[in-house]
Structure formats: C-alpha cells, structure tokens
Amino acid sequence: MEYDRQIKEAAKTLHSRQDFANLMLKILNPLKPYYSAGGAQLKIGYTSAHYEDESAWMEGFSRPLWGLAGFWAGGSTDEEFEILYRKGLAAGTNPKSSEYWGKCRDYDQRLVEMAALAFAIMMAPQVVWNPLTKEEKTNLAEWLGQINENKCCDCNWRFFHILVNIALKKAGMPWDEEGLKSSLDFIESCYIGDGWYVDGENGQADYYVPFAMEFYGILYAVVMKEEDPERSRAYLERAEKFGKDFVYWFSEDGSALPYGRSLTYRFAQAAFYSACVMAHIEPLPLPVMKGIIVRHLQYWMDKPIFDHAGLLTLGYGYPNLQMTESYNAPGSPYWAMKIFACLALPKEDEFWNVQVANLPVLEKQKLLRKADMIIQRRENGNVVALPGGRLLERVHTHTEEKYAKFSYSTKYAFSVTHSNANFQEADPDRCSVRIRKGEGKEEGKRPDPNTNLLWSKTVIPVAEYNIHKGRNELETEVIY
After folding, report:
1. pTM of the predicted protein model
2. Chain segment 60-88, per-residue pLDDT in tens
3. Distant-in-sequence, close-in-space partners of 435: CB < 8 Å, separation ≥ 6
4. Between β-strands 373-377 and 476-478, what pairing exists: parallel, antiparallel or unpaired?
5. CATH for the 2-352 domain, from 1.50.10, 3.30.310, 3.30.60, 1.10.10
C-alpha cells in the first residue's frame, strides 16, 4: 500500500527534528477525518473495552497528545490539530455540550486519559491553555479536578493524579496539595532500588516501569525542578541507573522484548529513552540513545501494524485482538506516541545533530536482579530473557503467557492461548504441557492431547480449586 511505503520511507531517514516531526505527523494525520464535529471524540473502530464507548472516544482524543504536546513545545505547528484540540478541550469539558466527557467515578478510565491533557497543558500551554476563554479554562480545570474526588488504582495511576495536580498548579487553578503529597508518597513506596520500581501491589518488572513509572518521574522532574528540587533530582538519578539495565531489553535491530502486558502500545517500548533525551540526562551516551530510538521506530514502521486507512491497529507485530487486554480500545495503541517526547527539544538542540551509534558492548549473560530475570545475548542478535515467573495475580488477560513462560525473545514473539480445549488451540511454546494422569488414554497409545489439557511454566503440581471441596492437587504427566 502507498501509505505503508510512505511511512517506511519517512522512518528510513530519521535524523533531524524535522524528520521526527514528519514521521509523527505521518502516524497521526490519518486520524483527522475521524474526530467528531465538536472535536472532543475520536471514533476509529467498533471493538470495545471494559469501559464505556464514550470513555474510549475520549481516550482516542487524548492519546495523540503524548506526541503532539512535545511537537508543539519544541516549536512546530499544525493548524488543523491545534484548532481540533482547542475546540475538543472546550466541548469535552463543557457540561452543556453534547460531547461532554461526563462525570467520573472511582477507577474511571477517564482518570487515565487526563494525564495526556495535563502533559499538554504543561508542555504546550501556548496551544492548549492560553488561547482558551476564562470560562473554557474553568470548565477544563473543574473537569480535571474530578481526579481529586475519585480514587485512582494504587499503581502507576497515582502518577496521573500527580501530573494533573501539578498541571493545575502550573496553570494557576485549584489543586489538591494534600492529595498530591499522598500520591507522591505512594510512588516512593513503589521504589525498590537500583533505579527500579514495581507498578503497585500487583506489579512486577514489565514495560510499566520504563514507559510509566520512570517516564512520569522524568516529566515531573522537568516541570518541578524549581519547586521540588530534591525529589526531581532523585527521579532523574533513578532514571539514569535504570537506563543502564533497561538497554539489555533491546536488540541491535531495534526490536525489544515482547514481554508483559500492554504490548499493543508497541513503540512506547523505547519512550523511556526519549524522555531521558527530553530531560537532558544520559544513562547512556546521547548517540547510543538516539540509535535506540531511531532503530526502534524503523523496526516498527516496517511491520504491518497499520490498517488500510493508516490507523494503528490493536495487536503487536500485526493486528491481533486475541492478545490484547480488556482495557484496550481502538484508540489505545496511540499510547505509543510517548516515543516522540524528544520533540519537546528545539531544533538547535545537540540531540538533533549527533549521529546514531550502535548499542554499547553488553554482557553476553546479565542478571537483572531487580527485574528477577537473566538476559542472554545470542550471536544471531537474538535477545532472550529468562524471567523468574509470574508474581502478579491473574488480573489481566493472558498473564500466564505474558509473564510465566520459560523464556522470551526479541526474535521469536510468544504465542497466546485461544483455549485449553486441545493442543492446537493451546498453541504452547516455551512451557510444559500436561494432561490429567490416566485420562485420554487408549490401550497402548500415548495420551490424547485433546483431553483435559493443562499447561504451566511451573514445576509444582497443577491444582484445581472447587469452592465446596477446596484445593485438589491433580496428578498430571508432561506430554510436551
């Protein structure tokens, strides 16, 4: 398709700020026909998430701002997007508008999407805040203020509460000082040392450390370095430590480990290094970080991840609803726009002039203690992770496949199970497969894999739980 050819060509020549801006617009421009008349909703598909369609449309509106805010902050303009977003912010937060985003409740998806609005207010007030009328500013601030009246999940969501409140503070609007302190204290409780966080109570090492916890900490440090210098310095120091470990998740070809949840955010995998560039910190030399970002974008732009209209699809290396989470709506993949945070730098910045460099010399086998995994770097460029196993409860889709396989590879992505009804639908890879002992057998033949199939990474006995009889250990035998 012509669009595929154009986007691959745009990625091939990434070097200057204009090159990055052109690629970002190549990704976002296909969205323009799908904004609602009032600009506050973006409807680009008919699949659903576990939240209302109205929230999904608001999510579609907000997520492109992770790219556009930096684009505007660094001095670029796009009149059509600027008009769309000013109009949309006014309509979405006006209770009298037919496109009003509505009242929030505890753990509402709209609390998540407020963070991108806060990012834009802080980074590009000249586009999304200053031109608004007094009434529009009041409406926007009051709508965002709902995050102080409703609970956020105790995980990276608490950073959304932080970002919204510092945006309100910066804009001179009412904010929650006590609530902000509480959320900052919670984030501190998630820090486990050596630059690493856990993503709340159910968290473990996955991409929510780099593209959420670290990313938001860096953003906080950029905008709050004068008001909160000690915490800002700590966030940046942690990021510098983390970046020296995180590089092990990348291969020289630009790919990163397909591991953990939210993989449909695709090139957000390298957003951490873009945030480091934005903040002028160097966990790795600047040319190395540029190389990671450039090769990562080139890797993804070469994949069939866009549909015939040029819209990002749900999936990973290709469109695939089977591997997604219940919180993935049609606009969710645009979380990937975080990789363009570096656009906040003006065209004169050193980053835009340095040449890309290869990855540094890395250990062939590396224990990432805080991530509870061993990383192996193979001669063929394949990066293999051997994780310690799944720690979090089964609160998201396919957590067994995404966290509990024996290994994960940049070269060979993992399979997800369609069902456990039979061997073909289970499609197991890098795990042990069992059936209940004594079942599914015929005299003189091996076990029938279509009967009572169970699979697990663990070597402990497989168990079933009956609410009336309690736990029952199952005697099984490995067939694969």
Report:
1. 0.91
2. 999 999 999 999 999 999 999 999 999 99
3. 447, 448, 449, 451, 452, 453, 454, 476, 477, 479
4. unpaired
5. 1.50.10
